[in-house]
Design goal:
The protein is mostly beta strands and 121 residues long. It contains no helices and eleven strands.
Length: 121
């Protein structure tokens, strides 16, 4: 089946930077949209950034100017680069894919299991 696996999370210092990766595996033909979401303890999951197959990007206000979403579409890898990290960036970051077309079927939406990002003071 189609799976999304995040990596790159960990402990980073305030003001530092990180790069998260998400690998989409399976017999995937195309993906319409991919994105990153995050969820802090006691809070709802929120959008970080999305990117379409056409290359259009969208960023949530809290990360605008600090985040960059990109993809190696042929390898089905999604990236999120963030800089000037703040304490409020601490959360579990989830990879998301919408409109996945695979060989045998389509997947409306798939989520990864998440990777923890902790920003220390």
């Amino acid at each position: 089946q189609v799976q999304l696996v995040e990596s790159g999370g960990g402990l980073v210092q305030y003001g530092g930077s990180l790069r998260l990766s998400c690998l989409a595996s399976g017999n995937i033909l195309s993906i319409k949209t991919m994105g990153w979401y995050r969820q802090a303890p006691g809070k709802e999951r929120e959008l970080v950034a999305t990117i379409t197959s056409g290359g259009s990007t969208n960023y949530a206000d809290p990360v605008k100017g600090r985040a960059s979403i990109s993809t190696d579409y042929s390898k089905k890898v999604l990236y999120l680069e963030m800089s000037s990290l703040k304490l409020e960036d601490t959360a579990v970051y989830y990879c998301n894919a919408v409109g996945i077309e695979a060989v045998l079927r389509t997947y409306p939406e798939v989520w990864g299991r998440g990777t923890q990002v902790t920003v220390s003071s």
